Records
---
Amino acid sequence: MTDRPEARSLPAHASGTFAIGGELSVHRLGFGAMRLPGVRGEPRPSAAHEILREAVRLGVDLIDTAQAYGRSEDLIAEALHPYPEGLVIATKGGLGRGGRPDGRPERLRADCEGSLRRLRLDTIDLWQLHRIDPEIPLEEQFGVVRELRDEGKIRFVGVSEVSVDELRRARQMVDIVTVQNRFNLAERAAEDVLGECEAGGLGFVPWAPIAMGDLLGTSSTLAAVAAGLEATEAQVALAWLLHRSPAVLLIPGTGSPEHLRENVSAALIELVENDVLALEDATQGPS
Ligand SMILES: NC(=O)c1ccc[n+]([C@@H]2O[C@H](COP(=O)([O-])OP(=O)(O)OC[C@H]3O[C@@H](n4cnc5c(N)ncnc54)[C@H](OP(=O)(O)O)[C@@H]3O)[C@@H](O)[C@H]2O)c1
């Protein structure tokens, strides 16, 4: 892995880089913006803006959001537009009411065009299908995604919550460059999908990288490894993901400036093999 030499002092840069689609180089420790609209309970746009700006100051250049995350896309544009060079905003579409998949082609087009408007972009660097809709033929869903890419509205395409089989079928219809599945130290059911990403040169973006906080305080081994490194449990959980595969791109989410700094600093942690084995033994394996 290489790094941009001009800014090695920024913590996120210690995570190294990954080239999305072989072209868009980002540092592997990014930020997930799902929780920003509800930052600290009451929506406080100024707090969300400050977190986004701080993330960029810390060297984050990959921000994940979605059409379905309330005002998240608007907050990103308000805080960061005109965007700093090299910032990659990854968004998603195709999630309807109640979090149900909605893969109707007209819906996917409307979601993508809405994201372009809200993010004030001409092209979305990485647009992810939030969920495959089991009610709509795959060819219809990926057909419109292909059209949007050919129209220049999307540069690269990703998918979310897919099986290996779904990923393979999707890749027959359109070039897929990233997969976003739930995956963390305690929830490793997507190991096979991660392996498929590694083999194909795709980025793997684990969502809920600290199990939405549920991972913390649950394992004496995690606590002991963290204490030994003078780190927090969240940092060790994130460092384990970075260590797990060079294909991993992290997007931990937080509404707290302290947690943001803590999470980004996880890029500076180097786990030794004994700790890795102990952590993997102590927490849940593939299920
Ligand atoms: N593709 C999908 O279907 C999908 C689904 C869900 C999420 N996502 C993406 O994945 C991103 C991350 O997922 P996530 O936010 O659900 O889960 P997460 O990153 O595992 O956990 C976030 C939760 O942990 C807490 N937290 C964060 N850092 C912490 C720290 N250092 N110490 C203690 N607690 C900490 C946060 O609360 P505080 O605010 O108090 O820090 C928040 O409640 C989202 O922002 C979104 O972009 C994708």
Note: The beta strands are 17-20, 24-27, 31-32, 62-64, 88-93, 124-129, 154-160, 176-182, 203-207.
---
Amino acid sequence: MQLMSGNEAIARGAWEAGCSIGVAYPGTPSTETMESFATYDGVYAEWCTNEKVAVEVGIGASAAGARVLSTMKHVGVNVAADPLFTAAYTGVNGGYVILAADDPGMYSSQNEQDSHYYACASHTPMLDPADAQEALDFTRDAYELSERFDVPFLIRSTVRVSHTKTPVEVGERIDYQLKPYEKNAPKWVMMPAYAKPRRKVQLKRIDDLKAWVETCPYNRAVQKGAEIGVICCGAVYQHVLDALPDASVFKLGVTWPLPEQALKSFAASVKRVFVVEEGSEYLSEQVRSLGIDLSPFSDTLPKDGELSPGLIKKAFGIAEPAHHDVPDDVPGRPPALCAGCPHRLVFKELSRIKAIVTGDIGCYTLGALPPLASIDTCVDMGASVSMSHGFELALAGTEHKPVVAVIGDSTFGHSGLSSLITTVYNKGAGTVCILDNRTTAMTGRQGNPFNGMTLQNRESRELDLVGLVKALGVEHVEQVNPHDMKAVRSALKTATTEQAGELSVIVFKAPCVLLHRQRKPHFFVNADCRSCGVCATLGCPAISKDAETGIAAIDPLMCIGCGQCAQYCAFDAIEQINDSAMEGGAR
Ligand SMILES: Cc1ncc(C[n+]2csc(CCOP(=O)(O)OP(=O)(O)O)c2C)c(N)n1
């Protein structure tokens, strides 16, 4: 028995099933799955540039006869949707399992999506574990099922399943032999002449899956009272057990396709049937479409965010003991760029020149929050570069503020590159700032093509970002140290004035502070502080102001000695402590 998170259990299940290849792009809450898989013996695991590439590599490895795992967060499934839909035509050779990890409540996502809809729309069967044991068992079995039904299998998890640790009974790894690959164009070449017959194969498979799911042991009806019956899946099942101990429950382990007959007999066994689900109405719509009448809740069940036993009780009209409100004097702690973050000065300087800043997804999205408040937009990965092109197109011929895109190195590799090619091709304008902090910081410092780190520390090749952008034909390309205020200011000024109307790219290159965790002697505020408050506008968590006097202070434990703030002090009131004092334990 081992204590495992759902993510670790999925990795273990894949390993036990003889899966030998893992291909993914990181994204919360899925990331640790591939990181855990990569630690097992006898496997190859890599980060791809994005989820579409990962699934295509996965289909290739499956066609070649290996068992394969791909993992991604819910929005990653949008990126991978193109190959996913057609993989449900080609089918597989070696079993192929894809994790779609949803984030109801948007703890670390730009939207809330229910991946069930992808299973339904692409006709890809989906399993929905409710804890780590099921995550392991379902994943392990999904490989057999994938080969039996000749289709990839989706595992859906949510933050609660992915990140909660529960006890798990583990097993041994099977000795899976690579299946022979044979050329078979009607199966693998999806042009209309072959795709049309393959669609018929898919329709027959849907019928087979519907027959299988009726008796599939992953779906369980737990009969208690005859009054109330609840249909649910995943983490919500655990909340339903807590909230409604006397209700009969139909726990779905397979959420596409649904077991029509089994659900109908469950519905007939109780007076009133409810579907309890979070973040969407997928299950309710599906269950209603089977002709089952659902009862209304006495109070509303929230349509957004995560559910909890309390919210479910409320929806059923059961009084909950009052929650303790958060006391008023607890200070808010909005997220901030770390002390010493190399992204900070770029945003400070972009605010100064009042640029329109199209943002992207990564740590640097925090440049949207006060006091930096620099970013104007954030939609999806890669959108900064394409949206800045859109802004420039619409504003062409008008007097307008400089348009500047900011994008991280990993995000640039994910999809910013293809956006930039569009701008170059169409002779677009604007400035693109690539914030190259040498890592994929937001999701936990993974490797990417521009830092040369790989998931299993294999030898790699580090792509030259400046050389790459120049090779696309961008004439104005510069690399700048983002900790140097004057250099940042001057590069942005040149790009947005002298080069206005043309396309320019600035690569701001300096490692993320969390990469090597090297501290330099810290800075402190001396007696010359005039309370001007400029240093505080950097939004560094190490800097605070006295509420009455406005005198600044630097927390010596948080300061890592980057010296960004000292460059903004007009009164030389910010100094670095000397090394010897630090060695003597002055902190
Ligand atoms: C389609 C998609 N895939 C994955 C993610 C998860 N994710 C958020 S930010 C990010 C990468 C950030 O790295 P980088 O661009 O280098 O910026 P940094 O955080 O290092 O500043 C990832 C993978 C996502 N939001 N959307």
Note: Residues 583-587 have pLDDT under 50 and may be disordered.
